[in-house]
Amino acid sequence: MSDSGAAKPINPPQTQDHQPGRETEMHPKPEYMPKFPGNGRLKDKVAIITGGDSGIGRACAVLFAREGAQVALVYLEETEDAAITADAVKREGKEALLLRGDVADKTFCDNAVGQVIENFGKLDVVVNNAAEQHPQKELTDISPEQLRETFETNLFGYFYLTQAALPYLEKGAAIVNTTSVTAYRGSPELVDYSATKGAIAAFTRSLSGQLAEKGIRVNGVAPGPIWTPLIPATFPAKKVAEFGSTQPLKRAGQPNEVATCHLFLACDESSYITGQVLHPNGGEIIGG
C-alpha cells in the first residue's frame, strides 16, 4: 500500500545559488496576478511592501494596486524581478516606487519610509514580508553569522520598518506581518528561521495591543509551502521537486493565493480584526 503522505515530485527539479532567489529563473513561474477584478478596497491608500520584488511580495503589490493603492516596493538586489513587479503595478494604473536596500539596516528603513512620504505624501499600509532561510541539520551547525543575519532580516527588519512608519500611520492604518506555518509546528532543518517566525507572531500580537487605542490594526499571515524564489534558493533540487506534495491539498500554494489574505487584513473588510493570524497552508491544521 502506498503512503499517501509521502513526498512526490510535482515540480521540475531546480536550484538557485543565491538568496533570496530570482523569480525570473524559476520554472514554472509562480502565479502572482490577481484572479478577480478590483473593487476599490484600497482606493487612495499608500502601501509599503518589503520583499516586494517577487513571490508573495509581488503578488501583494499587484493585488493592492488593482484594489486602488499606490505601492512602494522594498527589495534587496533583484533589480530585474523588481522591474517586472513595477511594470505589473503600472499596468494596474498605479505608481510603483522602487526602494533598493537591506531591511536589516535601520537607516535604510528610515530613509525608505521618508521616500514614501516624500513621493506619496502619506502611508496607510505596512506589509513586512522580506525573509531569508538557511537549512542546517544540526543546531550546532548554525553559525553566529547565520543566526545574526537571519534574525536581522526576518525580525529586526520588521521592527525597523514599523518603527520608521509609525509616526505617519493614522487611525485606520494597517500593519500586516508575514510569519510562517513553521512558527506553529516548527521545522527541524530551519530552527533559526522558525524561531524568527515565532517571534513575528508574538510581535504581531503584542504590537496589536499597543496600537489598538490608536486605531491601527496589526495582523499576520502564516503561509505554508508557497512556490516562491526562496524555495529553489534554499533547498536541493529533489526537495524542490517535491515541495508542497505532502500537504492535504497535495501541492504548493501560489503567491496569489496568499496575497488575498494580506489584502483582507490591510483593508476595511477586516476592521474588527487585530492581533490575529491567517493560515493559507493547503489544509494543515495548526493550533488544534
Q: Which features characterize this protein?
A:
alpha/beta; Rossmann fold; 288 residues; single chain; 8 helices
Describe it.
With 288 residues, the chain is of the alpha/beta class. It has a single domain, classed as Rossmann fold (3-Layer(aba) Sandwich). The protein is built from eight helices and seven strands, in the order E-H-E-H-E-H-E-H-E-H-H-E-H-H-E. Helix 1 packs parallel to helix 2, helix 1 packs across helix 8 and helix 3 runs parallel beside helix 4. The chain is globular and about 50 Å long.
Classified by CATH, the class is Alpha Beta
Average of the residue pLDDT scores: 95
* Sequence of strands across the biggest β-sheet: 3-2-1-4-5-6-7
* Relative strand content: 5-15%
Please name the CATH topology.
Answer: Rossmann fold
SSE topology sketch:
Blueprint: E1 46-50, H1 55-66, E2 70-75, H2 79-91, E3 96-100, H3 106-120, E4 125-128, H4 144-165, E5 174-178, H5 182-185, H6 191-211, E6 217-221, H7 237-242, H8 259-266, E7 277-278
Parallel strand pairs: 1-2, 1-4, 2-3, 4-5, 5-6, 6-7
Helix pairs in contact: 1-2, 1-8, 3-4, 4-6
Compact description:
With 288 residues, this protein is an alpha/beta fold. It has a single domain (23-278), classed as NAD(P)-binding Rossmann-like Domain (Rossmann fold), CATH 3.40.50.
